[in-house]
Specification:
Layout lengths: L34 H16 L4 E3 L9 E4 L14 E19 L9 E14 L5 E7 L6 H12 L10 H22 L9
Antiparallel strand pairs: 1-2, 2-3, 3-4, 4-5
This protein binds zinc ion.
Zinc ion (ZN) binds next to helix 2.
Length: 197
Amino acid sequence: MTVTASSPYPLRPELVHYPHPILRRRASAVTVFDDALRAFCREMFLVMELHQGVGLAAPQVAVGKRIFVTDHLRRRDDPSPKDRRVWINPRIERPEGLTTYEEGCLSFPGVYAKVQRHNRFTFVAQDEWGVERKLDLDVDSGEFLGIVVQHELDHLDGKVFVELLTVAQLTLVRKRLRELEVDYKKSTGNIGAVLRK
Ligand SMILES: [Zn+2]
């Protein structure tokens, strides 16, 4: 008798939209750095590039693991990979100052809003081989990557950028959120994890 260990990673991950409940759950740490993890990271880049994103977190493809990928230098008019990076078990150290930036999210197509983020901080994460790296980031000095990693780290904690909006900002995007809620109910038969504010 043989026992096959099941992989936590789907072979062909697919993007999920709000209000899929996995977007509101805290993801768990990665402890095994194997070929299955690295294959999943490669698939995440393909999903991110297909949907023209600059960042994608594992919960956005329905995987509750602390992994995200970025390519903050990709552009709509030239979608080839520019600076692919994998971030695993990431954390922020020594945050200083605040800044605001207009963000969008592949899980909330058509929703854009300005949100407040840390300005300077040290970002610590492992790569797909388990090697830990530290990177100092300063958003106001032009490091857009500093916005992307904060947005994606929130996904790993089950937080979505719409939760950071003021009541006035929410009023502006409410119609689009309702449309996404209706689409989700139609395709799954479930209500999902609807935001209430
Ligand atoms: Zn997002």
